[in-house]
Amino acid sequence: MDRRIPVDDRTGRRIVPETTRRAAGLPERQAGTRYGNRPTMKDVAARAGVGLKTVSRVVNGEPGVTPDTERRVQEAIDALGFRRNDSARVLRKGRTASIGLVLEDLADPFYGPLSRAVEEVARAHGALLINGSSAEDPDREQELALALCARRVDGLVVIPAGDDHRYLEPEIKAGVATVFVDRPAGRIDADVVLSDNYGGARAGVAHLIAHGHRRIGFIGDMPRIHTAAERLRGYRAALEDAGIPVEDSWMSLGATDPERVRRAAEEMLSGPSPVTAVFAGNNRVTVTVIRVLAEQSRRVALVGFDDIELADLLQPGVTVVAQDAAALGRTAAERLFRQLDGTLVTPERIELPTRLITRGSGELPPAD
Fold first, then answer.
1. Edge-to-edge strand ranges of the sheet holding 277-280
2. pLDDT digits over 58-116, tens only?
3. In sequence order, what are the residues at sequence separation of 6 or more whose Cβ sits closer than 8 angstroms to the Cβ of residue 19?
4. pTM of this prediction?
5. How far apart are CA 244 and CA 181, in angstroms?
6. Strand pairing partners for 129?
7. Around Cβ 61, how many Cβ atoms within 10 Å?
8. Is the CA virtual torsion 297, 301, 307, 311 positive or negative?
């Protein structure tokens, strides 16, 4: 007898006949199981011996069903593993009780509390949150946002990667509530919730100046990004306020990968007139700069934009300009649900304050 196991030519997977499975001591496949085919209300009705309307009443918690009939229907639901099809309810009611969140990077710690705050507001309104990451790619942002719209989300909270959001105009006109957060929308009029990036950076650099620094480096994100541009503007304003000429060699904007940031920091810290302090443009930059400064023979002051984990445990602790990421997410989500409730008409720009947290690194005096 040929005991070879046949192979499906199309998939390359082994096909094990039931006789072979039994001979090998393998469990038999459950008859009738077809993945992707879920039990319907018709299946529940047949098993319980009742009509479809009765099942519908039980599933939706409506009156008009005797306790005995309700028990039989519930037993059929449990036995079959039936779940209510909310897609059908969408067709009837026009609302999905779901919202989409388009983030820049799911791995960035800054977006954790922001996402959680959006989720908590959605949950309080009985809605489900679906999120995804654009990876700072405008095309991927558009693809993800439109995919969420195609799945009939009621609203979108978007952290934009691109600078042209006219692709969302048809969706907004069709009734998809939309709020942008952390960065403004491009080329459309829409609600936006931001941090005071300019004011926060200006305050952080002024703090370094107040502690005697005159040569202060700035390392930031890509200049096309709104937050990076605003923080650079705040940096320049603080130096100009103090009458300190701004030198190009003190400024470096670009990708925030560790290699690029390390090169920028090492260049600023070397030469005949190195910087005595660094203002780091975001949390990822701050982490790399901390590593570079740990290798220096002299102490260099540091202020970072965005708080980082364990910043208070380092020696010295890291002074930061802190955003309230949770407040950004909560404000944006509350704004979204006010749109859905019909209480908002005119788009607004909301700017939340930042906070300077002094821990030691930003209070170091110049080494020379």
1. 251-253, 216-220, 277-280, 301-305, 319-322, 355-357
2. 988 899 999 999 999 999 999 998 887 665 555 455 577 999 999 998 889 999 999 99
3. none
4. 0.80
5. 34
6. 99
7. 7
8. positive
Within 10 A of 246 (CB to CB), how many other CB atoms are there? 14
Rg (CA), the chain: 29
With CA atoms as reference, report the closest residue to 219 among 248, 247, 253: 253
- 66 residue type, one letter: T
How much is the pLDDT for 38? 80
Shortest CA distance to 159 belongs to which of 135, 143, 188, 175? 135
Closest-CA residue to 69 (of 80, 79, 60, 58): 58
CA dihedral 357, 361, 363, 365 (to 10 degrees): -170
For residues 204 and 362, is the Cβ–Cβ distance under 8 A?
A: yes
CA distance 346 to 364: 47
Give the pLDDT of residue 91.
Answer: 46
What is the sign of the dihedral through the CA atoms of 69, 73, 78 and 83? negative
> Could you say which DSSP state residue 133 is in?
E
Angstrom distances, CA of residue 77 to CA of 50, 246, 265, 273: 12, 71, 63, 76
Cβ atoms of 316 and 360 closer than 8 Å? yes
Residue 230 and residue 223: Cα distance in Å, rounded? Answer: 9
What tokens appear for 253 in the block? 């904007």
In whole angstroms, give the CA distance from residue 262 to residue 287: 10
| Cα end-to-end span (Å), the chain | 89
pLDDT in tens, 167-195: 999 999 999 999 999 999 999 999 999 99
